[in-house]
Design brief:
Structural class: alpha/beta
Number of strands: 25
Bound molecules: zinc ion
Distance between the termini: 76 Å
Radius of gyration: 29 Å
Length: 658
């Protein structure tokens, strides 16, 4: 019996100088969707992700944290891996560039390239900061160091070079023979003209960096950036023994558009030089923009995945990212659009159809899938439409047109809603004829629900598994073969499963407030940190050891609380719970947002003295800057806020609380 066809998909090997944000999460989600989809089409799939752990930035960060590099990267890798696990995005292979299997593969690839005459020793001259021990790429003689501001020096060091210039023609020939290699099309043209412009040889080792993979027999040379990082795709599927595993060449490398050149020029050239098979396709996706600005750590507008997944479920984030943007293009990210889509498409759309259908079958057929009677033209029409949707959805998944695949699925859901509204099975009486009509309507709706559940599974794995259970269907939805999916396979007489909570509706303002509050907490973990287990990975990675359960007086002393007096208070449009306050803290007047709007009238607060944490990092709540925190007790099951105050004595404004 021939084995299953194989499919190998990768995300980039992410650099460990920070923690995953929505951009990394998007790429990893897409890889996971493709993996699930291909499995449902009968493929044996391997999905690889990992962490890029070498280089001077890691050296510096480890030094700053006061721990060895190996320990620093181990913590970062743990933080990345555990976030993926938490989000249900566990890869089949998680490769770290400090893994022994990777070190072996890089050294082996280098040997092959060298034996084939594509590596030579030369000199690299660049602008170097002797304080940071690093070359500054793109700097000119006379420039200052972008990190420390000191003058750079022109330094020449011995390097190994890769003869990239020899691959101009082979690469152009390869692109011509494999027109699908670079996707989307617009990126392909960009790369072709870059290569046509001529290729310079590439320095692939350094002697000024310590934290890297050694070049065997050539110490102190270590491999530099791309020769190390790109090779991880091959290391993950057994490197030198890749033939035994049978997963190389990769079918698909998913990358952000900023790194497409390295994946479509350097990487195939390295492999050609070693006479190894070249990957079949590289797909570059766009950025998510916040209010049309690129997300960046320095702008402080980075979106974190965990708070969204915590509140709405990871499926909601998966759905939104794939539905909202054409894959390959830039897209806008806003919490407003996210929650709107969640309510309209998931809670009111799929979720409502599922619970409504199940409730009707429960009520009128004792929870057993009814046997359909004679079919009317409108039943036929819905069946045909759904059958056609199967083909359309599969074609769009195949072409990475995820937004269109989801559109087709949701159009079937809308048709089912309309069908129920028109046919009104609840209004039918109890005559045999009417009962038979009701059976046909409910069977038809349940069959449509079964089909959209299967089709949506790659994007919504957790919630479709619940709908599968709700419908009492056998095995798991992941085990359904997409190529065998047809209208009419729903067997009557089967008992429905347990009721499931799918997508509880949320109130938009409140949901956004809660997501933003969780994100703020993750970005600026409280100074007197919780135990490492519940702290964010950032804090866990940076803290040399786990914080103890109880804090010392010196930790408490870090929190600076003072008596403040409220000068003005007003409601914030679009945020039911927040008040915008200005508070006199003795030395200055601060703007502070407080989540007390449902319990305190703004007018009655003016003049009131409150306790304020004054050294909290400023943060934004619903777009309004909050510079400090007003202390309140959380009372009762709803956590009703009660402001802390000073009823006994007229305390001085600005007095410190100890
Ligand atoms: Zn410097």
């Amino acid at each position: 019996m021939p084995g299953k066809p194989k499919f190998y998909v990768t995300t980039p090997i992410y650099y460990t100088n920070g923690l995953p944000h929505i951009g990394h999460t998007y790429t990893t989600i897409v890889a996971d969707v493709i993996r699930r989809y291909k499995r449902m089409r009968g493929y044996e799939v391997v999905m690889t992700t990992g962490t890029d752990e070498h280089g001077v930035n890691v050296e510096r960060a480890a030094k700053k944290a006061g721990i060895p590099e190996s320990e620093f990267v181990a913590r970062m890798a743990d933080a990345w891996r555990s976030l993926w696990d938490e989000l249900g995005l566990t890869a089949d292979e998680f490769v770290r560039t400090t893994d022994l299997r990777h070190v072996r593969t890089v050294q082996w690839l280098f040997r092959l390239c060298r034996e084939n005459g594509y590596v030579y020793k030369g000199h690299y001259t660049g602008q170097y900061c002797i304080y940071d021990n690093a070359f500054v790429t793109d700097a000119k003689p006379g420039d200052n160091c972008p990190d420390c501001g000191r003058p750079l020096e022109t330094v020449t060091e011995e390097n190994y070079f890769f003869k990239l210039s020899a691959f101009q023609k082979p690469l152009l020939d390869f692109y011509k023979k494999n027109p699908g290699f670079i996707q989307p099309e617009s990126r392909r043209n960009e790369i072709v003209s870059f290569v046509e412009g001529g290729l310079k040889d590439l320095s692939i080792t350094r002697t000024t960096i310590r934290w890297g993979i050694p070049v065997p027999g050539e110490e102190p040379h270590v491999f530099y950036v791309w020769f190390d990082a790109l090779t991880a795709y091959l290391s993950a599927v057994d490197g030198p023994e890749y033939e035994k595993r049978g997963m190389w060449p990769a079918d698909l490398h998913l990358v952000g558009k900023d790194i497409i050149r390295f994946h479509t020029v350097y990487w195939p050239a390295f492999l050609m030089a070693a006479m190894l098979p070249v990957p079949k396709q590289v797909w570059a996706h766009g950025w998510f923009l916040m209010d049309a600005a690129k997300m960046s750590k320095s702008k402080g507008n980075v979106i974190l995945p965990r708070p969204i997944a915590n509140l709405l479920g990871i499926d909601a984030l998966r759905y939104f990212l794939l539905r909202e943007v054409v894959f390959g293009q830039d897209g806008n990210f806003s919490y407003d659009a996210l929650v709107t889509r969640y309510n309209s498409d998931l809670a009111n759309g799929l979720g409502n159809l599922a619970s409504r259908t199940a409730a009707l079958i429960e009520k009128t057929f004792g929870g057993k899938i009814p046997k359909p009677g004679e079919r009317k033209p409108q039943d036929e029409a819905l069946a045909q439409e759904t059958q056609a949707a199967i083909g359309e959805v599969l074609e769009n998944y195949e072409n990475m047109s995820f937004a269109r695949a989801l559109e087709a699925i949701w159009s079937a859901i809308a048709s089912a809603d309309k069908y129920l509204t028109t046919e009104q099975p609840w209004a039918l009486g109890n005559s045999e004829q009417e009962q038979s009509r009701r059976a046909t309507i409910l069977w038809t709706t349940a069959e449509l629900l079964r089909i959209v559940t299967v089709l949506a599974h790659p994007v919504l794995p957790a919630s479709t598994a619940k709908i599968w259970t709700l419908l009492g269907l056998p095995h798991s939805v992941a085990a359904v073969e997409l190529d065998g999916l047809r209208w009419g396979q729903l067997v009557p007489g089967k008992q429905l499963g347990k009721a499931q909570t799918l997508f509880p509706r949320v109130e938009k303002d409140e949901a956004i407030e809660r997501i933003e509050a969780m994100a703020n907490e993750e970005r600026n973990p409280a100074p007197a940190a919780k135990p490492a287990a519940s702290a964010t990975p950032a804090a866990a990675a940076a803290a040399p050891q786990a914080a103890p359960e109880k804090i010392g007086i010196e930790d408490f002393a870090k929190v600076e609380m003072r008596v403040g007096q409220i000068k003005t208070a007003e409601r914030i449009v679009g945020a039911d719970k927040l008040l915008k306050l200005t508070v006199d803290i003795g030395t200055e007047i601060r703007q502070i947002c407080a989540g007390i709007a449902q319990y305190y009238e703004p007018e009655k607060l003016i003049g009131r003295k409150v306790a304020v944490v004054v050294n909290l990092a400023p943060r934004k709540l619903r777009g309004v800057e909050s510079n400090g925190m007003v202390i309140a007790a959380a009372v009762g099951p709803e956590g009703r806020p009660v402001l802390a105050g000073f009823p006994d004595e007229d305390v001085e404004i600005g007095a410190r609380l100890k």
